[in-house]
Structures are given as structure tokens and as C-alpha cells.
Write a structure and sequence with these properties.
Blueprint lengths: L3 H9 L16 H8 L4 E3 L11 E6 L2 H12 L6 H18 L10 E5 L4 H7 L3 H15 L4 E3 L3 E3 L11 H8 L3 E3 L4 H5 L3 E9 L3 H14 L4 E2 L5 E2 L25 H13 L12 H6 L14 E8 L1 H5 L4
Parallel strand pairs: 2-10, 3-4, 3-7, 7-10
Antiparallel strand pairs: 1-2, 5-6, 8-9
Helix pairs in contact: 4-6
Length: about 325
């Protein structure tokens, strides 16, 4: 934790730019431009995780962008939330525009942050993604867009540290790890669009798992994902066809056998997109079929937006 003298100094004197170290400036013009100077665009991780929706990012992850994100997340530079929220808002607008939903009808846009582990929030003293989502929503509302932040995702089991895991291992680590809070189904189904938001996308595993959990209570089946494939809202066999009972597959390094078995049980419970805790819809509980979403298009009900994505995901030729 920073000393009180450091907090007082930050209030009286401008800190150095967290992106490039320029003295006595909260964020220099060059680093601000690196975050929000270019038009946000669609990005594609390779390999593409099954069920990952279309993702838009404001900037490649590296250099000043990386430094600013880490300063906000790990070093508690909370004033940076505004400029990072501005960048995230641009990615959200681009996602809606490319989905043909620039003028949202039928309900508000819901920004759903990818949740951080409780231990990480305690260690950092704040929830960085939630803070960025709120800043982005404020930007979008001031521009006239009906936007709300809905923090309904939560971890249902412990996961291993993602550092050092490859794409497949991260998918195994996160399979079935998230759930939607009880009684959130109606709010989600009444949305015009749902945009899963995060500060950073590397492999896309976190966004894919968040989308899977949300689809389970939104009644979205057979959705075209951002990779051009389809998903039934259940991850299924990782890297396979996904039919039938999901399989978690080989244990990833650093993941205990008990946690791996927990992922398997969780995935099995998700078969058929059965939202187990939405008390407001008896038909869902009896039949496993969710009622139609009132404001959402089935093919692009759930989108994703991030501040930054890996440089490689920007460089992949999409044609």
C-alpha cells in the first residue's frame, strides 16, 4: 500500500506520465493518442476460442498502452480510469456499429465486466475492469446512448493463475468457472445488446467463458460466434465439435485435480443452457428452454470490447 505521503504528493504535484515517464504530467499527449488516437477495430486471437463473440479493441497491447493499463490495474493510478474508459467506450461503439446496432432499439446496452478474482480485488484495493466499465458507460451516456453497467458475472470456483498458460490451457482453466448472479436473467434478456468488457484480451479465453455464462441465461442458442463458427452456448469439447456433454480435457499445468473435476461437473451442469438460478422463469427450469429475448438479435446478442488486445490479434488478415 502506498504511504500517505505519496498520496498527498500526488494531490499537490502532477505525477510522471505512466506511459513514457515524461515528468510532471498525468498522461502525456503521445500516450493518450496511443490509447485513443486510432479507430478501434475488430481483433482475432489465433487460435479462436470456441464461443468467443466478435471482439473490438481500441489499441494494441504494448509500449505505452501496456504501461498505462498496468499503472491503473496494479499500481492504483485511479485517475487513469477516465482515459482508459474513453478508449473502452470507443471499442464498444465500434462493436455496436459493426453489428449493425449503432442505434440500439428494444432495450439498453448492457456492459458486463469480466470479473476479477476476489483475492485480486483485495490485493489491488479496487476492481479495475468494473471501474473502466463505469467510466466507459458514462462517456457513452453523455453521447446519448442508453447504457448501463451490470456486474452479474462471478467466479463459481477457483482458477489457476493464467500466467504461463497457453491458449488451450487457459480455456481448460476457465471452463465453467463463471456463473451469472441469481435473478439477473430478466435484465439480460431485456437488453438491446450485451457487451462483455475487459481491459485486455490475450487468448480470448476469459471473454469466451463470460459469453458462455451469459448465453446460458439469455436463451441464446446456435449463435454465430466471432470466429465464423456456431456455438450452442456451451463450450463443449474444447477444440472439438462441442456436441453432447462438455469435456474439460487434459489437466493444464498448475491446475489441481479437484479444481479440474470441479470444472468438469460445472460444464456438465451447463448442457442445454439450463440457467439454474433464474427464479423468475418457471418455464426455463422445467424445460431447459429460455424464452425469447425481447430486445436481442439471436446472431449477435452478445459482443465483446476491450481496451487493448495482443499485437498479433490486430495483425491477422481477416480477408
Amino acid at each position: 500500500m502506498r504511504g500517505w505521503w505519496r498520496d498527498l504528493t500526488d494531490l499537490v504535484l502532477p505525477a510522471d506520465c505512466p506511459g513514457c515517464g515524461a515528468p510532471r504530467v498525468a498522461l502525456c499527449a503521445g500516450c493518450r493518442s496511443a490509447l485513443s488516437g486510432a479507430a478501434p477495430r475488430g481483433v482475432r486471437p489465433n487460435p479462436w476460442p470456441r464461443g468467443l463473440p466478435a471482439v473490438h479493441a481500441a489499441a494494441p497491447y504494448g509500449g505505452a498502452v501496456r504501461a498505462v493499463l498496468l499503472a491503473h490495474k496494479e499500481r492504483g493510478a485511479l485517475p487513469l480510469a477516465e482515459v482508459l474508459g474513453e478508449a473502452l467506450a470507443g471499442a464498444v461503439r465500434a462493436a455496436l456499429r459493426d453489428a449493425g446496432a449503432g442505434q440500439v432499439e428494444g432495450g439498453p446496452v448492457l456492459l458486463v465486466p469480466v470479473p476479477s478474482a476476489r483475492r485480486a480485488v483485495r490485493a489491488r484495493g479496487h476492481d479495475p475492469v468494473r471501474r473502466l466499465a463505469l467510466a466507459a458507460a458514462g462517456r457513452l451516456r453523455r453521447a446519448g446512448m442508453p447504457v448501463s453497467v451490470l456486474c452479474v458475472l462471478r467466479q463459481r470456483r477457483a482458477v489457476a493463475d493464467q500466467a504461463g498458460l497457453n491458449s488451450r490451457q487457459r480455456q481448460l482453466n476457465l471452463s465453467g468457472a463463471l456463473e451469472v448472479a441469481p435473478d439477473a436473467g430478466r435484465l439480460l434478456r431485456d437488453a438491446g445488446r450485451i457487451v462483455v468488457v475487459d481491459d485486455l484480451m490475450t487468448t480470448g479465453a476469459s471473454l469466451a467463458e463470460a459469453a458462455r455464462a451469459l448465453r446460458g441465461v439469455c436463451g441464446v442458442h446456435g449463435v454465430v460466434d466471432g470466429g465464423g463458427g456456431t456455438t450452442a452456448g456451451v463450450t463443449g469439447r474444447v477444440g472439438g465439435t462441442g456436441a453432447g456433454t462438455p469435456e474439460v480435457g487434459p489437466r493444464a499445468p498448475g491446475i489441481g485435480r479437484r479444481a479440474q473435476r470441479g470444472a468438469q461437473v460445472t460444464a456438465e451442469r451447463q448442457v442445454g443452457n439450463r440457467p439454474s438460478r433464474d427464479r423468475g422463469d418457471d418455464r426455463v427450469r422445467r424445460t431447459g428452454k429460455a424464452r425469447p429475448a425481447s430486445g436481442m438479435s439471436r446472431s449477435d446478442a452478445i459482443l465483446a470490447a476491450v481496451v487493448a488486445a495482443s499485437t498479433a490479434s490486430f495483425e491477422i488478415n481477416r480477408n
